[in-house]
Amino acid sequence: MGMTSVCRVTTLATIFLVLGVGVMVVADQPDSKKQRARAPDASRVFRDAVRKLDAVSRQSGYQVQCDVQGGLSKKADHKVWMFQVYEQHQGQVRGDLMYMPERKIYRTPQKGAILIGEYWMPLFNDPAGERIQRIIAFPAQVLLDALSSKAKIKWIEPPEKVDINDPDYVEPMDAPLEPDEGGGTAVVEKKQPSYRRIKVEAGEKVAVHYFTQIQNSGLLGGFS
Amino acid sequence: MKVLIGRKSQDEKVIPESQAFSEGVEHIVFSYSYQLDSSEPVEEFVIPIGAKKYLK
């Protein structure tokens, strides 16, 4: 008796990144038109951030922690309701080299070596090593890939954190009406944008590349 | 970073891109959270000879 598993994954993929940046913005600009005119160019800020990270990486390096979560979502905000993949990895990056001490791995964006027993082996010879090589991209490479694609780049606001254990927290339905909510005309004051987060939707080519990496890592098997 | 991957519908039909990642449509999400710390310089790596040959 045989069993056939039907793979429902398609090659349709899209990718977006959100990164925090530091930008000096002149405050107190009451005129909204002026405010819009003076908004920093998100594409330029993103380009500068990518260059700076690359420079830091080559000059002094950095520590990196990467958490990967994979699951199914039915939401427009892509919130996952059923997790099937969770991985956490740490490493140190200097230029095109990454060292991952937990697994004794040295790697470049293309290849690597892993210590198995007393012997160094090619990273792709070990299933866990191959998975890491495919799913843990170099941060600067991710940004460079996005930059080199036809990416859509825009400013977004950080999500407002709600602490439901806060004694002052009130369920939205129980909250008292604001003075303006009682009726009549309300004047909504627009918040000054913070210009601290950039959202980048990378081009199709980049999306397909990262999709292929995930597919080849074997991690999509659980979604069949 | 989020990578969104489309799925076929229950009746094996490919869902168009405009709907594949919308409310109510099941799709796969891979979410990557990178935390970088450059406050301390990372020492130059001393790569063992046995590992070096696999990096070239």
Supply Rg of chain A: 23 Å
**Range of helix content of chain B:** 10-25%
H and E string of chain B? EHEH
The chain-level structural class of chain B is alpha+beta
Largest sheet of chain B: 2 strands, antiparallel
Distance between the termini of chain B: 29 Å
How does this structure look, described?
The complex is a heterodimer of chains A (224) and B (56). Chain A is of the alpha+beta class. Chain A contains 5 helices and 9 strands. In chain B, 14% of the residues lie in helices and 30% in strands. Chain B contains 2 helices and 2 strands, in the order E-H-E-H. A two-stranded antiparallel ribbon of chain B has the order 1-2. Chain B starts with a strand and ends with a helix. The chains are: A alpha+beta (224), B alpha+beta (56). The interface between A and B is large, with 62 and 44 residues. Strand 2 of chain A pairs antiparallel with strand 2 of chain B.
